[in-house]
Amino acid sequence: MALKLSYFQTRGLGEPIRLLLADKQVPFEDHRLSRDEWPEYKPKMIFGQVPCLISGDEELVQSAAILRHLGRLHGLNGSNETETKFIDMFYEGIRDLHNKYVAMIYQNYENGKEPYIKNTLPEELARLEKLFHTYKNGEQYVAGSAESYADYVLFEELDIHLILSPTCLDGTPALKKFHERFAERPNIKSYLNKRAAINPAVNGNGKQ
Ligand SMILES: N[C@@H](CCC(=O)N[C@@H](CS)C(=O)NCC(=O)O)C(=O)O
């Protein structure tokens, strides 16, 4: 069944889904809405928001539901309940960081960027670094030797934070190495090369 992912032209909440689909080589239509087109689409969306994944006549919204659905389809959800619940917990922890990032970007960039980089970010990254050591001493993926949907979210989260603060991972070596390794996965590398040609904005207000 042909897949279509509707999201804005930015990276935002759509990008981890695009990364997962690209890495698993799942063909999909990458439908990137412009802000001008949005008023026409918004009323058609279940919660008035994107991302939206369409498969045949089935529509799925809510980024976590989309990621978990794709995770189940492509073996990216852990191999037992212990791993799956850990993956979900790790994902929610990343999402909490992302919400703080988004609040700073959209509501308080000029005054909030510096304290965010100095205080909030190191605290949040240190928590993730510690948790990342749970499996395989933090040398592989979130839940050990197999990748999960949370790895795509983690990679994108680290990637956008490196744009905000290029040295932000210096104090979290396992996360830094994970980011480097993940960027070298052949399908991810090829997607990142193609993306570089478009160079999409990270966020809708142009701040990053
Ligand atoms: N809980 C939703 C949030 C989705 C969301 O906030 N989408 C934003 C873009 S990142 C959106 O559609 N904004 C346009 C609007 O609300 O009109 C999810 O995780 O998918």
Give a brief rundown of this model.
Helices cover 55% and strands 10% of the residues. It has 208 residues and is of the alpha+beta class. The termini are far apart.
Architecture overview:
Residues 1-78 form the GST N-terminal domain. Keywords: Transferase. By secondary structure, the chain is α+β, with helices and mostly antiparallel strands. It folds into 2 domains: 3-75 and 189-198, Glutaredoxin; 81-185, Glutathione S-transferase Yfyf (Class Pi), Chain A, domain 2, CATH 1.20.1050. It is built from 8 helices and 4 strands; from the N terminus they run E-H-E-H-E-E-H-H-H-H-H-H. It has helices at 15-23, 38-41, 63-73, 81-107, 109-132, 149-164, 173-183, 186-198, and strands at residues 3-8, 28-33, 52-55, 58-61. The chain is globular and about 45 Å long. Residues 12-13, 42, 48-51, 62-64 line the site of glutathione.
Name the features.
Glutaredoxin; 4-stranded mixed β-sheet; 2 domains; alpha+beta; globular; Glutathione S-transferase Yfyf (Class Pi), Chain A, domain 2; single chain
